[in-house]
């Protein structure tokens, strides 16, 4: 016997609840507008790294204006990453309380505000804005995989490719345009950084109609989805920890590059403009790995060959930066880019593939991104501190090669054909 529409259970991946009848109807109305959903996802994803990538080519100039050391400079990129982890702690609760669409809209507004606060004329605002930026991006990071699992259950891997590619594309444009924008605004790095708040505002506007359509989803009547048997905590799952550690380690090596790649090149004699262009190319080429690897991963029972491929490429690229940073800059940027893009796409896909349902995907996403980004925040700060202590990039880059080896080990375990 079929159940009436009002009794159908539509699981909200972030809320982990059975929604009200109004929520069921709102969810169906939203899914009936796939183009609207897709545009919102793409525009939100474009903002998930742009605010960080725009800082990297300018970090030396920003630090010089405020008289910051290399270690203090590293906090400009490590503070947002730290709050990617801390912000992930509250994302699931906010999703339960207000619904994904409302939280994503709020995150984009917060991101725009954080970008503007970051350019105010004080060190406190510089770091305070970075804190807001990290928190906003955390909300986007955590809610997006569960939202995709919920709304595109049969195309989760391909949709992961779409949003990961959009995220990397946003970072590419921001990295390439930061120094030219600084010059266009009369040498004002503040205006260059503030420009990217417009991108967040555009994305927020795109989420307004989705909030209106989905407004009934906040009327939850029953807490907790009925499941057969006891619910296993992801925090007690060895497989969940393996996925989490791979997420964290691949984020660590990526954020070291986001923080320091242009500086590494300029410290070896390359101009700031050229270093920014190579960095942008590195971000651009990540799109190839980010699109292809998740699709391949979705067609495999075990993703171990892909783990070997992406970690091997990243390790090789870091070795290249140690041996011949300027003469081989374009080659290393390309090798690293494909490896980085493939790794982040694979890490996000593993969250979906290792989850048996949307609720588990949301829980695993929260765990992987909370712990993972707290771990990743160590990277930019440690690299800057070691560089300041040694006066050379050889030691910090060598340490990241060691991170690649550890990531290979945990990644091979996370890639097994199992479910959390």
From TrEMBL:
GO molecular function: transmembrane transporter activity
Keyword Transit peptide: no
Keyword Transmembrane helix recorded: yes
A single cellular component GO annotation: plasma membrane
Stored Pfam families: MFS_1
Domain of life the protein comes from: Bacteria
CDD domains xrefs: MFS_NIMT_CynX_like
Transmembrane segments: 35-55, 75-95, 102-120, 126-148, 160-181, 193-213, 239-261, 273-297, 306-324, 330-353, 365-387, 393-415
Entries under InterPro entries matching the protein: MFS, MFS_Cyanate_Porter, MFS_dom, MFS_trans_sf
Membrane topology qualifier: Multi-pass membrane protein
Keywords, ordered alphabetically: Membrane, Transmembrane, Transmembrane helix
Domain Major facilitator superfamily (MFS) profile: 33-419
Subcellular location: Cell membrane
Protein name in the entry: MFS transporter
Organism expressing this protein natively: Streptomyces beijiangensis
